[in-house]
Design brief:
The protein is an alpha+beta fold and about 550 residues long. It has 21 helices and eleven strands. Among the domains are: about 120 residues, no CATH class; about 180 residues, no CATH class; about 60 residues.
């Protein structure tokens, strides 16, 4: 029965793609004969959207195929390094709107995860979901009073039943389609569909693990503890399970609801600038950033609208940067906005993002060709996200390998930039970010950094300091023991060099005598024999010295 279901799912995927004319994206001349025959055989599956653009047909097909394909489309919409603007903008319209599953089924799943009846620790469970998504569904409840007599409004996020099997099955067919696209599309090599699906597989499987999301949220909350810029709801880790997340319920205004934000008197300029600050703080201070900051995951607190507070939820996807990546990224931004394209090229090579044998001069010219036209615009109109895209696209022509952490960073930056300019169209992202980057660079490379590194390493050196006299004594003792051995080796080397020089002397002498014997007309055979005897004698002497 299982193989039949898999084949039926394959048919549904193929039929949906054909009904939306997605097959027409691939040039017919690149189709193998077997595929052409198969398409003719499925003659009843015709394009039902002939007037729509290719990008729109692809978006409609993904919507029809369900949540797994919808999330793939959402991810692809951020990969403007792979897709042209038409496709990226069309796929960005995908909305993760999925019909809810029954509340009583959600209750049963929650109790199965907890291992005891929900009423033991919770009350007021609402079977009507607060929100639904492709992977999970959210219900509200109240956590019963603790030892301090306090109760807490919470939300329970539970994984959809059977979604993991559906995801794995769809991923299997996605990988098959990716191989087909890689072979048939003229641009298949550049688009790297197999690598994209591999990246998507990791991302979506990570989102299925609520324990991972809980840990991410706890880390992010700790990083912004006491902050007036970002609030992350409290996670009740005692009740979290791999398929269940329990967290504090928050009340806020969705960041995409501009009308409600304005009605609440929100300082939109400050809100937009604060979003940029939150992003760069996560990246450059903490090296740990929320990588799924689309409008559905961001709220704004209703209190203090003149000094607005961002609220972030859904931490299933996070990105990290190591110290080298952070430094090179900050230097790249600063060098780019200072139009120092040679510095940008050198940084890409130094970081290992492009091969070490890359021509700096050619790379600099390529970067200037792509990026210089951007500066015809005011700085306030320059897109940080598109700066990254242009840099990565140019670097990829020079065999830059895909950097997963940078892809997540680019995606998050596009989200934040889009939100910031939606909230406050006059936002000058560069003026907001540049002081942050300059302060960070100074902090990393200046006297503060030296002092911090010394303090960080102080416990290590404090531990090793008592051992230092013993280490010095042992090294000196070993050096004394090595001296006789070094003297013996030196003497042997000189003896061998002397023997080699003597061997070369006799070899050269034999060659000279041989030449004289050959080219001189000796008066008798006796002189000739004496000459060849001398050659043989010299050869024997040379052999004796060289064989010792």
């Amino acid at each position: 029965m299982k193989p039949f279901r898999q084949l039926f799912r394959l048919y549904l995927i193929g039929a949906t793609l054909l009904r939306h004319g997605v097959d027409q994206i691939i040039p017919r001349q690149r189709w193998p004969l077997s595929l052409k025959c198969l398409r003719i055989g499925l003659f009843w599956l015709r394009n039902q959207h002939p007037d729509a653009s290719e990008a729109k047909r692809l978006r409609l097909a993904m919507e029809a195929l369900g949540p797994v394909f919808i999330k793939l489309g959402q991810m692809l919409s951020t990969r403007r390094d792979l897709l042209n603007d038409d496709y990226a903008e069309e796929l960005a319209l995908l909305q993760d709107q999925v019909a809810p599953f029954p509340g009583e089924q959600a209750l049963a799943l929650i109790e199965a995860s907890l291992g005891y009846p929900l009423t033991e620790r919770f009350s007021d469970f609402d079977e009507t979901p607060l929100a639904t998504a492709s992977i999970a569904q959210v219900h509200t409840a109240t956590l019963l009073a603790d030892e301090q007599g306090q109760s807490q409004e919470i939300v329970l996020k539970v994984i959809r039943p059977g979604i993991d099997k559906q995801i794995l099955a769809d991923l299997h067919w996605m990988e098959s389609l990716a191989e087909l696209v890689a072979r048939l599309l003229p641009d298949g090599k550049r688009l790297r569909p197999k690598e994209v699906i591999r990246e998507y597989r990791k991302t979506i499987l990570d989102e299925l693990d609520m324990a991972r999301e809980a840990a991410n949220a706890i880390q992010l909350r700790r990083n912004f503890e006491g902050s007036d810029a970002l609030y992350v709801p409290r996670i009740y880790s005692d009740y979290c399970r791999p398929r269940l997340l329990v967290m504090e319920r928050i009340y806020g205004i969705p960041v995409g609801n501009i009308a409600e934000l304005e009605a609440n008197g929100t300082n939109m300029k400050r809100l937009a600038e604060r979003g940029v600050e939150v992003f760069f703080t996560q990246v450059f201070r903490d090296s740990f950033f929320h990588a799924d900051m689309h409008p559905g995951n961001i709220f704004v607190a209703k209190e203090h609208p003149e000094d607005p507070l961002w609220i972030g939820i859904d931490c299933g996807i996070v990105g990290t940067l190591n110290r080298e990546d952070k430094r090179y990224l900050a230097e790249n931004f600063l060098a780019f906005f200072n139009r120092d394209y040679r510095k940008v090229a050198e940084l890409h090579v130094d970081s290992g993002w492009v091969p070490a044998d890359t021509s700096i001069d050619e790379f600099e010219v390529a970067i200037r060709t792509v990026c210089e036209p951007i500066f015809n615009k005011p700085l306030s109109e320059i897109s940080f996200g598109h700066v990254l895209i242009n840099l990565f696209n140019t670097a990829r022509r020079f065999n830059m390998e895909v950097q997963p952490q940078l892809v997540l960073l680019q995606k998050t930056l596009l989200y934040i930039e889009g939100l910031g300019r939606q909230l406050y169209p006059q936002l000058d992202l560069w003026q907001t970010a540049k002081p942050f980057l300059e302060d960070w660079m100074q902090d990393q490379l200046g006297a503060k950094a030296l002092k911090r590194n010394l303090l960080e390493n102080l416990p290590y050196w404090g531990e090793k300091l008592p051992q230092l006299p013993d280490l010095i004594f042992n090294n000196l003792q070993q050096a004394q023991q090595l001296l006789p051995q070094l003297e013996t080796l030196s003497e042997q080397y000189h003896q061998q060099a002397d023997r080699r020089s003597r061997g070369l002397f006799w070899l050269g002498t034999s060659a000279i005598i041989a030449l004289i014997t050959l080219f001189f007309d000796w008066p008798s055979m006796t002189w000739s024999m004496l000459g060849w005897s001398g050659v043989i004698g010299c050869w024997i002497s040379a052999w004796r010295f060289s064989s010792r």
